[in-house]
Write a structure and sequence with these properties.
Elements lengths: L6 E3 L2 E2 L4 E2 L1 H14 L3 H9 L3 H18 L3 H16 L1 E4 L2 E4 L3 H4 L6 E6 L10 E3 L2 E3 L1 H13 L5 H12 L10 E5 L8 H4 L5 E5 L4 H13 L3 E6 L9 H7 L8 H8 L6 E5 L6 H20 L4 E6 L4 E5 H12 L3 H13 L13 E2 L5 E6 L6 H20 L4 E5 L6 H4 L2 H8 L11 H17 L16 H4 L14 H13 L5 H6 L5
Parallel strand pairs: 9-10, 9-12, 10-11, 12-13, 13-17
Antiparallel strand pairs: 1-4, 2-3, 4-5, 6-11, 7-8, 14-16, 15-16
Helix pairs in contact: 1-2, 1-3, 1-4, 3-4, 4-15, 6-7, 7-18, 9-10, 11-12, 12-15, 17-20
Amino acid sequence: MSTSLDGLQFPINPTSNKPSSSQTGKEIIAEALSIVDNKASMNALAEKNWRKRYPIYFKALVEQGIRNINNPISIAKQGLHKAHHSFDFYRNGQRYLLKDIMKDIDTANLYTVQLKGESETTPEWYVPYKGQKLQGQALLDQIQTWQGAGIIEPSHADALRAAHAHPEWFDLSDRTMVLFGAGSEAGPLTWLSKWKANIVAVDLPNSRVWDRILNTIQQGNATLYAPCAEKLAEDTPTATLKEKLGADLLTQTPEIAHWLIQSERQLDLAAIAYLDGEKHVRVSMAMDSIMQYVSEQKADTSLMFMCTPTDVYAIPKEIVQASTLKLLQRSKSQRIISESISMISAQHFFKKNLDALISCDNGHEYGIADCLVVEQGPNYALAKRIQQWRATLARHYGQRVSINIAPSTTTHSVTKNPLLKAAFNGASLFDVESFHPETTNALMAALWIYDLRHPESVANPETPLDHPLELMMKGANHGGLWRVAYLARTALPFAALYGFANEKLPIKKMLKVFKK
């Protein structure tokens, strides 16, 4: 963990004199649980093995969130309040609480550099998939195939069909879209650059990152607005721009927020930045601080987040029934093998996916899809939970919020972990599909446009929901994880084994029993 006391940092533990992401994470989750489940809250604080047992407490958040329609709001308020009072921000040797930085820190100016794309092409949308360019009927057929296989939920499929039926939606010349982490491999920059969007790109001052961003913009028909620490001439060449542009979300958090509110345009803020380990929590908190501040100053601001499928969610009753049916319909050979392994391992492997339904005070029953992968760690889970809390709270207060579950995607940040790479390669063993980045980007960019354009999207706070957690249920592309027969992390080793196996190895042929 970095100990550089500059910018946004985890608090220093007075006992060890070092920052502790585990302790801070426990305290935030415990505070989020405190009102709805005091016992779980106290257990979280006392937990000695947070690194391995954190899924218990994240699941408790969802379980308690289901029971009462007011609970998700209480949980989000408590969790975010604790988070903003926990993290510190350092500037010139001075320590500030994160919650105070927008008003207490003297900020330097950020200047705006504008660059227009050179293309005049008409905006269009298609989906790159397995070497094809899916459009028209071919795209609609593939959407139906994914839906039929349980890879995507019907609401996700319907949103894609609506986007296909409304090509005029993709002319984004009327939108100003702020990308935190604009160069992200899983982000929508490439598509927005083809759709005439006004793109406010925030990313690190890094010449390689900005070389790619600038090339993408120049080849498209969009307009780029980028932050710069110095005022540059309008005719500054791109070779110079790539060395000058950028702002650091972790160290220039208040500068970025103050720069954004100077815009006279309505802003669509997208939290897509990703960093490894504990830095992912910090950058999520930086984005949250900026989103909160900009939303307070510009009430018409919309928010966008992309959820990971490897998390824990409330899900509709019919998905629980579908998963149970899949368990019952296993082949005889699959049932014998999985049940034998489960018994020998004391249910450590091949545990049933979904538990009993949970009743809510709204008269409905919901299930829990626990797809957390322990290997991704509690910092990753906390970073994504912070985003869910902000989305839930912002929509409750009347903001338009686009938050959709994106499928498991073979980005570099995922595939550099050998276990996860192998597991995704072997996911088909359990009827789960992982996607290449170019496919995910196309699908999720279209979902964002649907959420901005369609008046009945759940992103619109005027669209009624039976439960606040339905905001994450709708539009989900979980790749099939919600509907598999087994708890994801108890089947992961076997998916990884299947992925590791070479076509010529007998073990792969043996494992194909699962598909028969």
